[in-house]
Amino acid sequence: MECDDSKQTGAGRLPDTQQGMRRRNLSRVLHTVAADGPLSRAGVASRIGLTRAAVSTLVDELIRAGLLEELGPERPARVGRPGSALAVSAHGPAGIGAEVGVDHLAVCVVDLRGAVRARAVRQVDNRARTPKAVLADLTALVRQMVVEAGQEGLRPAGLAIAVPGLVARGTHTVVRAPNLDWHDADLSAWLPAELPLAVDNEANFGALAELWLGDAAPADFLHVSAEIGIGAALVVDGRLLRGSRGFAGELGHVPVWPEGPECACGGRGCLEQYAGEEAVLRAAGLPPGADRVAVLAERAAAGDEQVRVALRDAGAALGIALTGAVNLLDPRAVVLGGALSRLAPWLVPSLEDELGRRIAGPGCDVVVSSIGSEGPLLGAAHAVVRAVLDDPMGVVV
Amino acid sequence: MECDDSKQTGAGRLPDTQQGMRRRNLSRVLHTVAADGPLSRAGVASRIGLTRAAVSTLVDELIRAGLLEELGPERPARVGRPGSALAVSAHGPAGIGAEVGVDHLAVCVVDLRGAVRARAVRQVDNRARTPKAVLADLTALVRQMVVEAGQEGLRPAGLAIAVPGLVARGTHTVVRAPNLDWHDADLSAWLPAELPLAVDNEANFGALAELWLGDAAPADFLHVSAEIGIGAALVVDGRLLRGSRGFAGELGHVPVWPEGPECACGGRGCLEQYAGEEAVLRAAGLPPGADRVAVLAERAAAGDEQVRVALRDAGAALGIALTGAVNLLDPRAVVLGGALSRLAPWLVPSLEDELGRRIAGPGCDVVVSSIGSEGPLLGAAHAVVRAVLDDPMGVVV
């Protein structure tokens, strides 16, 4: 399964034949009802610029495949015969999203309407556990979720997994996940073979969640998130920019002070040396441990001066690294997600000061994500749902 | 005119109707013959996966419109009846490319086969001249080229202009061109109204030239060029990344040493303060003047130690800024174009040293452009040609 990361209605890569056109039009109908429904056939037709007759044929096919359902006659709000309102099915295919965190595993089920229908989380220290051991636990959770989905009348259409590491583009291989100590691990070997699979970096799925679910996310933004490391993902014209090998978005290793402290990546003075969790905890005088972000937020809120200075300095380093990123990429906004969204009140002032004094002209908005640390898990599940909306023919037999 | 900056065959944004499909298929036929011709109708059909009959209809239309021509029977190298070889027309529409430089104006005419059919260059110091005065000179050159194109049997299909400044996306407005001292200048007011117009930053057209004409340019690269300032343009999956407002690629203002010298952009320690022409000349002990890049290259080649140190330090600063860019963007290669290509022997070693010691893993190739300072002019002319190949219906009446 390839995740399509577009905001546009889909199946754009299908061949340009009658058959390809039909598949694209099925996708356009389904996307339109998903976005704007309930809608009558006439409402769909006027939105996508096809005839009412053409839309009716497509709708019938989508109903037969269990992707659309009729809600009954619309209220007669307008002149003319009332049409029957259409909605995407709440009992059709569903996306299974999963997250491998350093401290936890999570799985959820999202239906075509975007509702979370089941969810399971397990706290577990995954540091230095093998991929095989971690994925055995994850598979157990996935199977439990598949059973629950079935009890709700849903059919899992695929499984997408967010991991805290670099994933080679177009593969299921985690090339490097430093905080798990995983290298070149092909995850497909240890996962249920019956579900189409996608594996991607957590920052990418977090950015996609922001694009698809966020409050008014623009079509161009840089999504910055932090858990243990600092990751970023670029959305350009409504599409994720993955880089030639899938490694784009390594904001944590942008040099801030070129002769600063050595970094595990081999560089010096990388952003992570100033704004990564470990660096901030050290500067704040706090030991490492579970859920340090909550502790930092608590202490900063209580007025702890050392913690506030540590966060202010981290915000300034973020501002310097982001100056480079904004100059290179010209995003409409920088969105702070993950742990950064919880620490935003103490990071943002110094971050905006640096951006403001360094960038000429209108610069770039800095906004805080409304999704926060749920992003990667929801982004993964929705990636499967989008894949169904983008090519319903994968389901319509 | 919108320049399509895609490497893929075009008209991808046309509506998904029979008419849209026909326009896309005309484009696919024309692109295929342009890329691989001379070709028979059967050769085209097998390459694009349409029937021979469908291709024949499309070809007839393109011949009637003067976009394709028949070269006569192919050599009977294979079994069966020889087909007639098709080529794109050498007497059809042509692209007019123009460049506004700080020290010169240039215009050229490129035919559908990609051949430069006419060219004019005028040395003129454009610093602090008004857009109106500069564009009056440019218009005179353009009119002369239109006449020469006509004498060659070519019909100009549009005019594209490369400028050394930021151009607001989707407009003809130069928002800021510091070395010309232009601000918010809508160029369309002073240019021939009869030609469809495109205006873009010189670094963007330089990168497109590299994409379309370079020796084996990959589909993902960061093109870095310098004349007076330092610009960059990102090509991602064969498309130019313009940024939300058209301002992406400002590599010259990525912070290298955050508390370094003040920059005209308002920031501190920007790359231009270490690797821009003015900074390098100062470090090399050379006064400003005409064609300083040639002087730098000459002195460096002759073993001038001060010049070599200045270029080595500039290369190191480039390497630090590019470390950030490569971590963010994961391009397949960094391509050095414009003035940088002439200075590459003395810049590249320190640049590669910095990249090599800072970036973990396979990193990124550094290659020198084979096109050099002609890039922006050729890129502009080819942008017009590509617009014709992408939507021949703009020409087929």
From TrEMBL, chains A, B:
Belongs to the ROK (NagC/XylR) family. InterPro entries: ATPase_NBD (IPR043129), HTH_MarR-typ (IPR000835), ROK (IPR000600), WH-like_DNA-bd_sf (IPR036388), WH_DNA-bd_sf (IPR036390). Residues 28-72 form the HTH marR-type domain. This is Putative Xylose repressor. It comes from the Bacteria. Residues 1-24 are annotated as: Disordered. GO terms for molecular function: DNA-binding transcription factor activity.
